[in-house]
Specification:
With 387 residues, the protein is an alpha+beta fold. The chain has 12 helices and 21 strands. The strands form 5 sheets. Strands 1, 6, 9, 10, 11 and 13 form a 6-stranded mixed beta sheet that branches. Strands 2, 5, 7, 8, 12 and 14 form a 6-stranded antiparallel beta sheet that branches. It is globular. The termini are far apart.
């Protein structure tokens, strides 16, 4: 087999807002450099460099594809090993293979002390063979939960950038649940599934632990071309114990104001939190429960006191009421602003059938349900259908 190496360039990638040249290759970022420079939080740095929704897209007759990457894998002290990140191949939009890359760097996280240790390792290769010998569009979706530096792309036939998509661009921001949390692959996270069902081109700014109404995130949303926009607000504000009710309302207004500066008439959907029983009526912060962790099980618990709501501490119930109020107030002058109660995506009946395994994040089956519900409520008969 004669391999052709194609330079990795911006016109082969979709879903990233910035590309950084590193010593290994090309690192996709989901926040621009200006935003990254304004916050030194390691959680945000890890989340935005994990390429949820980022994919290589190209046109080729190749029957074999190899992608060299340099991943950074996470290890949690005391917890079971995490599975390797999953790469998913689509041919003409249909699933055509999966693979993983071993090796790479390792980030060891000790949740009992808050310390981390970084160790370097070699790059690896994911390989796909048996593709049809026809001219076709090929997509390689990168692991949604594993920082991935792109090193080299090889094929057995020439590659050219795929033509621009005629689908509407959907720009979404949310927490780890939107990032992909405990889902098993990049094309089945609920936003990726909803985009597929809704016929949209996804840009996913779901940032694990980092949906905190940060002004730099609002500016990234403002400056990113999009036809449809949604923001899912709430769970991280509670489990980080970030602010009180007095600050929350103005922060939401400011976040939406900034988005509207760049997208004055685009359909903008504000989504409140899905059901999360530990924080429905109990404020944050939330923290790992170290007892089950010793047995290899990761769970979270709410550390606040329900009585603290009287002093303005936030719960999911409080946030849902406030978001509904804010959207109703603003919609009087903004007919393209809409609200969706997150419990319509995942509520009490869903929790009884598909409980959150760690009390905070949905599993793969729940991701599918949330994605299908969002596609129906937003794309089929909601504000995105009207657009």
């Amino acid at each position: 087999m004669t391999w052709i190496t194609t330079p990795l360039t911006e016109d082969l990638l979709r879903g990233a807002l910035d590309l950084e040249r590193t010593e290994h290759g090309l690192l996709p970022h989901r926040l621009p450099a200006r935003a990254r420079a304004q916050c030194a939080d390691p959680q945000l740095a890890m989340a935005e460099s994990q390429p949820s929704g980022v994919r290589l897209v190209f046109r080729t007759r190749a029957t074999a594809v190899e992608l060299d990457t340099h991943p950074t894998k996470r290890v949690y002290v005391g917890a079971p090993p995490r599975p390797d990140g999953v790469y998913e191949l689509l041919v003409e939009g249909r699933p055509a293979g999966q693979g993983s890359v071993t090796g790479g760097d390792t980030l060891t996280i000790d949740m009992t002390t808050g310390t981390t240790e970084h160790r370097s390792g070699p790059y690896g290769t994911v390989r796909f063979t048996g593709l049809p010998d026809t001219e076709k569009n090929v997509e390689i979706w990168l692991p949604h939960n594993e920082t991935t530096e792109l090193v080299a792309l090889r094929t057995d036939a020439p590659v050219e950038p795929a033509p621009p998509s005629d689908r509407r661009v959907w720009l979404h921001h949310g927490s780890s649940i939107s990032h992909g949390s405990d889902d098993t692959g990049p094309t089945t996270t609920w936003p990726a599934l909803a985009a597929s069902l809704g016929g949209a081109e996804l840009i996913n700014l779901g940032l694990a632990g980092s949906a905190l109404l940060d002004p730099f995130t609002a500016r990234a949303l403002r400056d990113t071309p999009a036809d449809l926009i949604s923001v899912k607000i709430g769970i991280n504000v509670v489990n980080a114990d970030l602010m009180r009710l007095r600050a929350f309302g103005p922060a939401v207004h400011g976040f939406l104001d900034t988005i509207r500066d760049g997208h004055p008439t685009a359909p903008l959907l504000v989504v409140s939190p899905i059901l999360c029983p530990i924080h429905e009526d109990t404020p944050g912060p939330s923290a790992p429960d170290l007892g089950p962790l010793g047995a290899g099980t990761l769970r979270f618990r709410a550390m606040g006191d329900p009585a603290e709501r009287a002093s303005g501490k936030l719960t999911l119930g409080v946030i849902r009421d406030e978001l509904a109020r804010i959207v109703a107030q603003r919609a009087a002058d903004d007919p393209n602003l809409h609200h969706l109660d997150g419990r319509d995506l995942y509520g009490e009946r869903d929790h009884a059938e598909l409980p959150l395994p760690d009390d905070l994040h949905p599993d793969a089956a729940a991701h599918r349900r949330i994605g299908e519900r969002f596609a129906e409520l937003a794309f089929t008969k909601g504000p995105f259908a009207d657009a």
